[in-house]
């Protein structure tokens, strides 16, 4: 061992901790509560504490809960919810100047960091999980109420910090402000980046073209330009392999299953029903929700 250097710890082959939460589609609408998950935790967070530590500990679940949509394609140790939100927050810091001049970028970054916070309890619910969009929204709102009132209600009392987190999350959900529209677009852009990176890392053995549809839901021209550039990269990648860029091909996932590329009629129906058809108020502002 060289002087002044420490020996690297032995590497473990154990699978990383995964605290992904089943969406409980079997529960009737209105029956899920934060207690549904809290009752299963090895250590329950202490409520009504003046210390932020119980909240800090619960946030660990965002680091270990996986984004669910990739699992259908055999990606079982993929990105976590925290991974997704971190890159989103960095993307907001690189907002093109023509757009940044019209936005509160600090608010956008903070919004990106909290927009999926409820998933620490709810988990990452996707369009194929059998949970309606309205029920998903209810579960997430109740989870944010628990986090911000039950865990943070007495932390730095009077500072407004907990209320600020709750308002930021709600602003993103409502999708009516310029900042929330940008962050929704960034949410979609981050998904497209991850889609491309998983395909590239598997050298064309996995086609995730099903997720490319979200590019059409991006509203702001500056983010559309990023998406267009990325989809161009993807087309070149598949072209070098002598395959179409997703649509109409079948490839084998790393789980040994053959997955169809593109968006099937049934999957399109599920996603249109889940995300809306683009004519709702939030959707028309680019705030259609994106989840894998």
Task: Briefly summarize what is shown.
Belongs to the HDDC2 family. With 292 residues, this protein is mainly alpha-helical. It contains twelve helices and two strands; from the N terminus they run H-H-H-H-H-H-H-H-H-H-E-E-H-H.
Describe the global form: globular
Q: Helicity level, as a percent range?
A: 40-55%
- Spatial strand order of the main sheet: 1-2
- The ordered string of helix (H) and strand (E) elements is HHHHHHHHHHEEHH
The description of the largest β-sheet is: 2 strands, antiparallel
Low-confidence spans: 1-16, 247-261, 274-288
* Radius of gyration over C-alpha positions, nearest whole angstrom: 20 Å
Class based on secondary structure composition and strand pairing = mainly alpha
Pfam families: HD_3
Region (Disordered): 1-52, 249-292
Biased composition (Polar residues): 9-21, 36-51
EC number: 3.1.3.89
Q: Can you describe this structure?
A:
This protein has 292 residues and is mainly α. The chain has a single domain (50-284), classed as Orthogonal Bundle (Hypothetical protein af1432), CATH 1.10.3210. Helix content is 48%, strand content 2%. The chain is built from 12 helices and 2 strands, in the order ααααααααααββαα. The protein has helices at 34-38, 53-64, 81-93, 97-100, 105-114, 119-122, 133-151, 161-174, 178-201, 221-240, 265-275, 281-284; strands at residues 250-252, 258-260. The protein has a two-stranded antiparallel ribbon with strand order 1-2.
